[in-house]
Design a protein that fits this description.
Layout lengths: L7 H18 L4 E7 L4 E5 L3 E7 L5 E8 L8 E9 L9 H7 L4 E7 L7 E8 L2 E4 L20 H5 L1 E6 L1 H6 L1 H7 L7 H13 L2 H11 L4 E4 L5
Parallel strand pairs: 3-9, 5-6
Antiparallel strand pairs: 1-2, 1-5, 3-4, 4-10, 6-7, 7-8
Helix pairs in contact: 6-7
Bound molecules: zinc ion.
């Protein structure tokens, strides 16, 4: 059996989905790859997900984080990988991505530079603690031609919600404060770390704390720097 490849339609639909979420929310998004043992085909599953988006001093919004849980799958379905968006950022595996992948054997595709056509793709496979970059994308997907925004199911878009995170709001309004940091207690610790993350992009520190505060949830850093 050869490794299941994503069909051209699938990858173009997924890029269409990432494009829509980027243009609506400036947020990352993710799709899970599932192997259906009955049909012997790859299926796409879009989990419920929450993107966190920040706003720069100049009013530009940028992706900070994406959190989702693996939904329960049917007996005939097997999780084989995931695809996630880096919005305008380059396609590569960030520190957070690598940390997440360590617990998730399979195929990991990253789509970056979403404004461009074609966008950037990055692919790695993890297995038993090892991690391999897949340079030849033909091994994992049919050739991409053009995104399919018109073929994105409404249900996919409905799975995505976005939380705005703003440093100034965070300080002035306790109500916004609670809303602004989903799953995070409104504490000065998070405040300090988030500020550090914004200024120094100290993602590993933020990731560690996020992981501790919301166990069982996967996080992808948005502005991912190594
Ligand atoms: Zn990532």
């Amino acid at each position: 059996m050869s490794y299941p490849r994503l069909t051209r339609q699938m990858i173009e639909q997924v890029v269409g989905f990432f494009d829509i979420i980027a243009s609506y929310y400036d947020s990352e998004a993710a799709v899970l790859l599932v192997w259906n043992r009955d049909t012997r085909q790859v299926e796409l599953v879009v989990p419920k997900q929450v993107g966190t988006v920040g706003t720069s001093y100049y009013g530009n919004r940028y992706p900070l984080d994406l959190a989702y849980e693996i939904p329960p799958l049917a007996k005939h379905q097997m999780l084989i990988g995931d695809i996630h968006s880096h919005v305008d950022g380059p396609a590569y595996a960030s520190w957070t991505d690598k940390a997440d992948e360590a617990y998730r054997p399979g195929l990991h595709l990253v789509v970056g530079r979403i404004q461009q056509e074609p966008p950037e793709f990055y692919c790695a496979v993890t297995a038993d603690g090892g991690r391999f970059e897949v340079k030849d994308l033909k091994l994992v997907m049919e050739s991409y031609q053009e995104r399919r925004r018109n073929e994105v199911p409404e249900e996919w878009i409905d799975q995505v919600s976005v939380e705005e995170w703003s440093l100034s709001k965070h300080h002035t309004s306790p109500e916004t404060e609670r809303k602004a940091a989903p799953g995070m207690p409104a504490s000065s610790t998070f405040d300090d770390i988030a500020a550090t993350r914004r200024e120094a992009e100290d993602l590993p520190a933020a990731k560690t704390v996020a992981g501790l505060l919301t166990p069982g949830t996967l996080h992808h850093g948005g502005q991912e720097n190594e």
